[in-house]
């Protein structure tokens, strides 16, 4: 399936690209946003990060083929954004973009173990150098930890039933494939809740993917680094696809805009911290009806944009 970058025009407009600027794409994927940004640069540079070996190989091939000398790819989890930029002697950047969705090839290439649509080894690692896999979680974590993980990261109401079913099943033999896990989860959910909506295993698979890749903690760390490295007037643009990610993005931007907003009884006292960002839009932007028709994976996307203050 062809990779279609989500909300591309909104991302490009949101970045307010300067042709001679320096931009960072923290989630290169298949380069949909990166190469579109690169086309708007004249004298500027783009640094793109991805922890996936296949994504980096694909990107390097295209960069060499098209002679895009102003595009640099770095294989790294975006939680290490600060280290990457410091190692490159970068002091400031003009914009940072995140597309937090799992890239299309990761879902479409069944052997990666991300999707319940294919029967494949339980893996779900975005960085193949990592030791932790979905297989390890499913077959070694205790029932209580499994329940909490599935409930927290998948927002799955039947997390307790699913965790119990996993533990009982693995006592007989290891749960080795996505197909086996999907069938097990489906059977654990009451029948009347399986008849409509998305696949019954969707939330559990989401939870395992987030846990394997420590996605939420990485996002918090990376967003803070991005804000620090933005020059005044620089833009932070983030697309999220589920409520857990969006909550982190929303709260990070809001706290950078009003560092004392969480203090319930501040009264008339001035905030001792200086604001760092101004949200360009108070509410998240969403895809157009036409984009959702053309690209169903855009349906749950939310785009938030903020600008660095002086």
Describe this structure in words.
This protein has a 7-stranded mixed β-sheet with strand order 3-2-1-4-5-7-6, sandwiched between helices. The model has no long low-confidence stretch (mean pLDDT 91). It is built from 13 helices and 7 strands. It is α/β, with parallel strands linked by helices and 310 residues long. 42% of the residues are buried. It has 2 domains: 8-105 and 215-308, Vaccinia Virus protein VP39 (Rossmann fold), CATH 3.40.50.150; 113-213, DNA polymerase, domain 1. It is 43% helix and 14% strand. It has helices at 8-15, 32-39, 53-66, 81-87, 104-108, 134-140, 143-154, 159-172, 178-188, 202-213, 215-229, 243-257, 289-294, and strands at 22-25, 45-50, 71-75, 93-99, 230-240, 277-279, 302-308.
Q: What is the arithmetic mean of pLDDT? A: 91
Shape: globular
Order of helices and strands: HEHEHEHEHHHHHHHEHEHE
Number of strands: 7
Termini separation comes to 43 Å
Unreliable spans are none
- Counted by DSSP, the helix tally is 13
Helix content: 40-55%
Report the structural category.
alpha/beta
Which strand order spans the largest sheet, edge to edge or round the barrel?
3-2-1-4-5-7-6
**Whole-number tally of structural domains:** 2
Portion in beta strands: 5-15%
Q: Might you state the CATH topology name of the largest domain?
A: Rossmann fold
Q: If classified by CATH, what would the architecture of the largest domain be? A: 3-Layer(aba) Sandwich
In this structure, how is the largest beta sheet organized?
7 strands, mixed
CATH homology-level superfamily of the largest domain: Vaccinia Virus protein VP39
Q: Rg to the nearest angstrom? A: 21 Å
Q: What is the level 1 CATH name of the largest domain?
A: Alpha Beta
